Protein 1
Amino acid sequence: MASLMFSLLWVCNSCGGRLSDNNALLCPACLQAIHPAPPLCPSCGSPVCDRLGKCESPWLAEESSLIRSYAALYLLIEPGYSVLRAWKKRGSPIFDRQILRWDEETRRKLLETQAQAIVPIPQQIKRSWKLGRSPAEVIARWLSKNTALPMRRILRPPSRWLAGQPPRQAQRSVQERMENPLRFKAIESRIGGLTQVILVDDFMTSGRTIKAASQALGKAGIGRVDVFCLGVRPRLRRLEE
Ligand SMILES: [Zn+2]
Ligand SMILES: [Zn+2]
């Protein structure tokens, strides 16, 4: 029994390959596959605007006027995307240490925002049950620990997340998402004079969840939002337009 458990620990949590180091949950190939994100466009959050030399979605800046900056640790591109998805599904403190790698540059950038608190985007309760935790909150807590900024849960998930069994945001079609914008609510009694926050999510794909959450914060009197995500997906413009 003990040897069976031991051998299970020696398997990479992402690809299932053998591990040579029992303090790791990922094999060296998977560890190397996660791709660091470049600086993100301050207007739209895309990782490619900088390379293009201009913003690829300038209209997004206007729609999310509260958002001043975007940052992400990783690019959501294969093969690293699978590793990050495995972390979302099977996260644990040891796995967290391999994915959530702190560096001084991140601290500097986050403190430079002058935010007063770190706000995780809430997830569906059903998903939290399934995963046993909320990845966005794990990231927010990690940022809080390393910056000494408090984590504040001031967003309530959209009511239809609480009521029904909606498809996961990522599985909804683009048209469906446009027609049914997510309506987060800020919990007014918990705002307590906050005016600037760092909004945290795990994966940013279309950016619509971030935008909806920041709009709710704006309605509650918050004037500036800086976004931090674990991973950002380069937009597939032709599919989304
Ligand atoms: Zn692996
Ligand atoms: Zn841009």
Protein 2
Amino acid sequence: MTFLLRIFLAAAALVAAGAYPAGALEISGTFIQGGLATGKVEPGTKLTLDGQPVAVAPNGSFIIGFGRKAKAKMVLRAEPPEGQLEERELAIEKRKYKIQRIDGLPQRKVSPTKPEDLARIKSDQIQIAEVRKRTTLKTFFDTGFMWPVEGRISGVYGSQRILNGKPRSPHNGVDVAAPRGTPVKTMGDGIVALVNEDMFFTGKTVMIDHGLGLTSVYIHMDKTTVKEGDFVTKGTQIGTVGATGRATGPHLHWGVSWFKTALDPALLVGPQKTGK
Ligand SMILES: [Zn+2]
């Protein structure tokens, strides 16, 4: 075996394990559509993913996410303050998504036409988008993630949705069915970035900022138990399961985003402890 071939095989083995060879640029994670990777570069490095700037914390940590339709190959480019420019090609595994039909939703929540509903939807979308624009230069996500509530999975990430017979945007989170009043916990450490008691589609809504553009959202809750600006640690109760907004029964819709890119929350945590 030639020396070069040996190097190639060693690199291929690392890629299969979900890690890329360590150099100045380190990265590991789930290289699949909906997945998330974290890494380290030399502090002060200019980092881009497919040409888009990636925030780097003062200690050199960074985080990147891959969307529902992420391309098969993405390029991470690191330009350290001194030293050599590094480019890494990331191979992103493709996924197949389900089709989910939900009937029996109030027509007003599927095809809103009333001006006051449309105005609320717009205002809700702006508030949510503002949170997803934030770049808090903190790595609260370092302490890891947990299921916010355990129960029957009634909706998975990425499904194409047909609501009352009409095609609608794909499902961008995980639905966990649980009795009304079940405590909902934050999936990880972070700052409470939004608490809204009455959004049109999402009802009682809480968003947490986990740093560097990673946010989580918890919707349809019956009650919220935190306020904006609170710092919460993984497992802190933030509300209870409900059916507010566009929901047919009590469940938690749990979403995770890297800036505007919706990720698959289920990829961040292991199986549920209760084995559901
Ligand atoms: Zn949902």
